[in-house]
Write a structure and sequence with these properties.
Radius of gyration: 26 Å
Distance between the termini: 76 Å
Number of strands: 22
Mean pLDDT: 89
Structural class: alpha+beta
Number of domains: 3
Number of helices: 16
Shape: globular
Helix content: 25-40%
Low-confidence stretches: 217-221
Length: about 525
């Protein structure tokens, strides 16, 4: 076997390589949903060339191999194959010349500039898609956001390459299931963010079953319960936070809040096949949410009492769905699903998927969200819902003053609420070359001691920043977790200060929740 091969990219070539390198039946590969997904994905990335790296040792598969496959009667290969993708056309002779150190048009810089990432092909009969790190794509309109991505380095025979993405792999029903694959991708994000070991799929499965011995065997494993997923999260020193996702506003705002802080979040729910007007239950499923998007046309409305938030603009999420592919789009398109019966209907909101339905189509399988599982660093103690509640109450008071002509805002405030760090906050303030803050206030904010993790709530009016409300994410719920306000609009702050000192305002303030009163105290 040659160390490498160079192929011109085509959908048929990719499918052929997957079958050949995995020693799988080409007819099986042709039916895989992931292959149809890659057809579209690589088309958008404009892939031109595939470089095959034979005899590749993948750490994750090697762990799975040692734990299970090595003991099988059938002799599975422990070596994988890695496929590298480029949007630059070249042939074998070009790569040979480069590796020989001879001058040519193909250089390491050209390869890096055109690198799209890689797919590890596992030597298994069906679940062949191993560790996959592919470049994200955008349509140039800035409507997609992938906060969880990080840099992955790859060495192609000594040529350094890298791609910014988040690792994905297909479910292996022997040592992993959808929940394990989702956790594995999420750990690739939290491992760099919170500095913990990144477990392999088999290590995740074992960690999830450590304290539940006797209920079922570890390997083979058909799936993890929510309780087992929580155990796996705790095994790397993180805290699992479970949040109901049955309300669309809560789903959008919570997801946006944590993803804004680059914290990976798992989405758990149920799949329903709605082909031909049905609602056939297909089973439970879990995906790792990797980003979100908006076409910008939606109105930022959806919260209680008309509360306006940037998170309400979300009209799709992107997820690593092991049965579809990386960054798979799931639309919030307003389609509802009856999860009950004809006699007892229960109509709920749902997300679109790219799953194949019973009729072979890809437009009828719906995902019904049930819960979000957030993987948090143990020092992040203040939950998102507490901060959002405080901002909601503050916003209601400002709107009351606006309705009575006390605060002359042209329109209702629009809020952007998300988790951040003090370094990101101050870096953002320092890099604000539009000088939204006066020099004195800028110096005050940059030099002020603040906790490492913060909830940041930015209020805007007509796209202009009005104020930042900062909450200490590391405090306790009974403490004074509101720590500072940044007043961009000095006129607004001055008018609000005057309003808070007028006679008759006391009884109104007394009826506000303590969290809103604490915020207003900084404007007095």
């Amino acid at each position: 076997m040659t160390p490498y091969e160079v192929h011109t990219y085509s959908n048929a070539t990719l499918r052929g390589l997957l079958a050949d390198k995995a020693k799988a039946d080409p007819r099986v590969i042709a039916t895989k949903t992931q292959c149809a997904y890659f057809d579209s994905y690589f088309g958008k990335l404009a892939a031109k060339t595939i470089v095959v790296e034979n005899e590749y040792v993948d750490r994750d598969f090697l762990e799975d191999f040692a734990a299970y496959y090595v003991r099988c009667h059938h002799q599975y290969d422990r070596r994988c194959t890695r496929l590298h993708f480029f949007k630059h056309p070249f042939v074998t002779a070009d790569l040979v010349k480069l590796l020989r150190g001879e001058a040519g048009a193909l250089t390491p810089i050209v390869l890096q500039q055109n690198y799209l990432g890689f797919i590890v092909v596992k030597p298994l009969p069906f679940t062949v898609i191993g560790r996959t790190c592919l470049h994200t794509y955008d349509d140039g309109q800035g409507c997609r956001c992938y906060p969880i991505t990080r840099q992955y380095d790859a060495s192609l025979f000594g040529i350094p390459l890298n791609v910014k993405t988040l690792a994905f792999q297909e479910q292996d029903s022997v040592v992993a299931a959808c929940a394990t694959s989702a956790l594995w991708s999420a750990f690739h994000g939290t491992g760099m963010l919170f500095q913990h070991a990144i477990l392999s799929p088999v290590e995740i499965t074992k960690a999830a079953s450590t304290n539940l011995a006797g209920r079922s065997r570890n390997l083979p494993n058909s799936g993890l319960s929510a309780e087992q997923m929580a155990l796996a999260v705790r095994s790397v020193g993180l805290e699992p936070v479970v949040i109901s996702a049955t309300d669309e506003f809560v789903f959008k705002s919570t997801l946006y809040g944590y993803l804004g802080g680059r914290v990976p979040t798992l989405l758990l729910g149920a799949l329903f096949d709605t082909a031909n007007g049905g609602n056939r239950y297909m089973g439970q499923h879990a995906v790792a949410v990797t980003g979100f998007g908006s076409d910008g046309a939606s109105k930022a409305v959806g919260g209680p009492s008309g509360f306006l938030a940037k998170s309400c603009l979300i009209d799709r999420v992107y997820a690593h769905d092991d049965q579809v592919g990386p960054f798979a789009r799931m639309r919030l398109d307003g389609v509802t699903v009856n999860v009950g019966t004809d006699a007892d209907p229960q109509i709920v909101w749902s997300l679109s998927t790219s799953w194949q339905d019973g009729a072979g189509g890809t437009n009828a399988v719906r995902f019904v969200p049930q819960m979000l599982l957030v993987l948090l660093y143990h020092k992040i103690r203040i939950p998102f819902e507490l901060v959002q509640s405080a901002v909601l109450n503050f916003d209601d008071f400002i709107e009351f003053l606006r309705d009575h002509g006390v605060v002359p805002l042209a329109e209702r405030l629009k809020w952007d609420i998300y988790l951040t760090t003090v370094s990101d906050l101050k870096g953002n303030i320092f890099g604000d070359y539009d000088k939204a803050l006066s020099p004195d206030l800028r110096h005050e904010v940059l030099s002020k001691p603040l906790p490492r993790f913060l909830w940041r709530a930015t209020a805007r009016c007509a796209n202009n920043p009005v104020a930042d409300l900062l909450f200490d994410a590391t405090d306790i719920e009974q403490g004074k977790y509101f720590v500072h306000s940044i007043k961009y609009d000095v006129t607004f702050a001055s008018i609000l200060e005057g309003a808070l000192g007028t006679p008759g305002i006391g009884p109104i303030l007394a009826n506000l929740p303590r969290s809103a009163q604490t915020i207003l105290d900084q404007f007095k």
